[in-house]
Amino acid sequence: QDNSFEQFIINYCNEKLQQIFIELTLKEEQEEYIREGIEWTHIEYFNNAIICDLIENNQTGILAMLDEECLRPGTVTDDTFLEKLNQVCATHQHFESRMSKCSRFLNDTSLPHSCFRIQHYAGKVMYQVEGFVDKNNDLLYRDLSQAMWKASHSLIKALFPEGNPTKINLKRPPTAGSQFKASVATLMKNLQTKNPNYIRCIKPNDKKAAHIFNDALVCHQIRYLGLLENVRVRRAGYAFRQGYEPCLERYKMLCKQTWPHWRGPARAGVEVLFNELEIPEEEFSFGRSKIFIRNPRTLFKLEDLRKQRLEDLATLIEKIYRGWKCRTRFLLMKKSQIVIASWYRRYA
């Protein structure tokens, strides 16, 4: 119920993860259809980039304001930090505060004067401003690190390398917020180079009990996890897509014209293959570099046909091998019989 600096940066990380989820599933999905020249009606979805910008913007973001308060001379308190937020973020549609002089919140008794509220992607969260400045400073003073570095124990010395007199850095140590922001940026950069798979977990109830489903709780999670938008995009789009060459290589044994070798362009081979299999035209679309299949059942049908064809080919190979083996044995026995017969006639 009482959210402070720790919960604030955790929720910031959740917002960034939600943002990359949106980028990789909703935005990228629809942009791929446009790149491939597939006819597509854009589906609207909420992009939480505006919330991330509210928190991490280098000039007007909440973390930037917090760092500025921690670094400026003079009397710095949590109240001065909140006052600064009320000046800079007062007009932001996802920031709420009683002290921002915004008419919408002046009489909002659910919002104490010492708090601010952010409308996150998952819903509104109220933060107690008390402790923000002290927790963000989180400084290890230089004289303490130097004293620890002088310890005779090798492990302690290794834990405080910044205390080495030859490597003294006169710059002020980074704040906890800026360190966390840099870590999140590194994490996002790393995730964007991967091909992540998502597993969304839905809590059926708050009691962690079996066989109890709270409909309101489940619906709330489905909404704020972005599953509705994702389902709409998936249902309107295509369940499977693959480059023409890999597709032709995988399914070419299903058509006599493409098996065992197709001499023309890969796209033409895929067109011949799908026409031969009599797959309805509404079930697939040809992009610039990929084939798009709408329903999973079409893909399952292709896989079943391929599995049956592989079994038939295995039977054919086995039949030819057995025929070759029997014929080789027969010819050897025939040759042996001729030799034996010729020697027998000579003897007789």
Automatic annotation (TrEMBL):
SMART domains recorded: MYSc
Keyword Transferase applies: no
GO molecular function, one term: actin filament binding
Renumbered residue ranges of the record's region Actin-binding: 184-206
Keywords: Actin-binding, ATP-binding, Motor protein, Myosin, Nucleotide-binding
PROSITE patterns listed in its UniProt record: MYOSIN_MOTOR (PS51456)
Residue ranges of every copy of the Myosin motor domain listed in the record: 1-307
Keyword Transmembrane helix (UniProt): no
BP-aspect Gene Ontology terms: actin filament organization; actin filament-based movement; endocytosis
GO cellular component assignments: brush border; cytoplasm; microvillus; myosin complex; plasma membrane
Pfam families with a match to the protein in the record: Myosin_head
Family: Belongs to the TRAFAC class myosin-kinesin ATPase superfamily. Myosin family.
Name of the molecule in the record: Unconventional myosin-Ib
Organism from which the protein derives: Eudyptula minor (Little blue penguin)
